[in-house]
Amino acid sequence: MRQLWRRKSENIAAYLFLLPFLIIYSMFMLYPIIRGFVTSLNKVSISMDYTFVGLANYAEMFRDRYFWEALWNTFYFVLISTPTLIVVGLGLALIVNAKLKGTTLLRSVFFLPFVLSISVISSIWVFILQPYTGLLNTFLHKLGVVQELFWLDQPQLAWISVLIATVWWTVGFNMVLFLAGLQEIPEDIYEAARIDGADAWRQFTAITLPSIKSVMLLTVVLQTISSFKLFGQTYLMTKGGPGTSTRTLVQYIYEKGFIERDMGFASAMSYVLFVVTIAFAIIQFKLLSNKD
């Protein structure tokens, strides 16, 4: 009986310690999620009067060609950004993990942009990419490129510009994750491989990649979720243009909810984005975690 009472008291103490977190989590995570779903089932007027319409917002959303365009733009950015950020992040981690002079400085240099705000990052890259007087075009002219490139005014160049800015801004975070995984690999394994005659590429494919499998999975999932939430770069650099060619789903949600004041429609799109993101994360966990 005494042991049972002691066990119950320990459980009560644990729940009391968890209570502050659970209260905050419920207020700022669970309640907004539930409230957003309720909003998606209503038409909300400017005066915030709710009129229940059931699944009408979802039906209207699936008939909206701009929704499908924004969803495709989001998918497109995920497809081009995730592999790029994984490869570049791993490459930078391999560089700074090498026993070379100056790697400590390189770690700081590579990670520094990540601490800057999106408004600062976007302003820097708009200045670099602007035509005629931009830093990039000026450099290309000195290399002999005669044509003036309008980086933010052509759809494909605009996506490349957003990708470059995103890589420069966020790749430092991926680098840190990969670096932590690389530093957990015992040096003895590499020494044994070198004695057996394995070259650098063989060591990378047979030792490094399998050893950082869990870090790779975490980084891919986090990067995919982050890419699905793309908003600041396109909104501040291209305004979703030219036209609507770089308008992502988060930007469309923002425009519908806070500019057109159609909160029900915006909430419905938010839930679709939430479901799609979760589905992609689950699929990646299944595919990557089961792969030898």
TrEMBL record:
Listed A to Z, the keywords are: Cell membrane, Membrane, Transmembrane, Transmembrane helix, Transport
What subcellular compartments does it reside in? Answer: Cell membrane
Q: What is the lineage of its organism?
A: Bacteria, Bacillati, Bacillota, Bacilli, Bacillales
> In the UniProt record, does the keyword ATP-binding occur?
no
Protein name, entry field: Lactose transport system permease protein LacF
Membrane topology term? Multi-pass membrane protein
The residue ranges of the ABC transmembrane type-1 domain are 71-284
Family from the record = Belongs to the binding-protein-dependent transport system permease family.
Query: In terms of one coarse class, where is the protein primarily found?
Result: membrane
Native source species = Paenibacillus allorhizosphaerae
Q: Indicate the transmembrane segments per the record.
A: 12-34, 75-96, 108-128, 157-182, 268-288
